[in-house]
Amino acid sequence: LDDRADRAAIADCVLAQVADWARAGALGDLGSETAQITFGSRLAGFGLVLMQVQPHARNGGDIAIARDWLAGLARREIAFWETDAPPGAASGNLRLWAALGVAAAAAVLDDQAMRLWAASSSSYVLCSANPDGSLPQEMRRGRLALRYQLHAIAPLAVTA
User: What is the mean pLDDT of the chain?
Assistant: First the structure.
């Protein structure tokens, strides 16, 4: 196989797996607040994968199914952070992971409203930073503060 055929075959394979999750309604009911506040990194993973494979995939049916599923997950993520997120989590690393997840979904879906939400969520957390650049929510972690600061910077850098 040539390089383009290899890419297309790999993309179709990955997309078929994601479409299976979508058809099953995977991650539709997270069941707990803890699962919901940590979901952003999972959404980011699926979004980033779809960003990479969508341009090379040939199965339009699987693309549509995966995109619809991703859109639903991203809309639920936005709704959670706007209405149900605990106040502390709303200004820390978990919101930044949610922003990355929604930004990745926005890129796949070419959705300007999702892009705007991701950018404003990132800005919301960044605007809480202390003059030294540290995030107050993560500084509350005591001896683990540096780890949590780094856990916040990772999705922020990729989102930017």
Answer: 93
- Token output for 47: 């979004």
For the segment 51-60, the average pLDDT, to the nearest whole number, is 91
Per-residue pLDDT tens digits for 126-149: 999 999 999 999 999 999 999 999
Please enumerate in sequence order all residues whose Cβ is within 8 A of that of 156, keeping only pairs 6 or more positions apart, or say none.
96, 99, 100, 122, 125, 126
The CA distance from 154 to 151, in Å, is 6
Amino acid identity for residue 22 in this structure: A
Tokens of 113: 């409203």
Is the pLDDT assigned to residue 3 strictly greater than 90?
no
Q: What is the pTM assigned to this prediction?
A: 0.92
Task: Name every residue whose Cβ is closer than 8 Å to that of residue 96 and which is 6 or more positions away in sequence.
Answer: 40, 121, 122, 125, 152, 155, 156, 159
Sequence-separated (6 or more) residues with CB below 8 Å from residue 142: none
Q: What is the pLDDT of residue 2?
A: 64
Quote the tokens at residue 96.
């930044």
Structure tokens that stand for 103 in this block:
């930004």
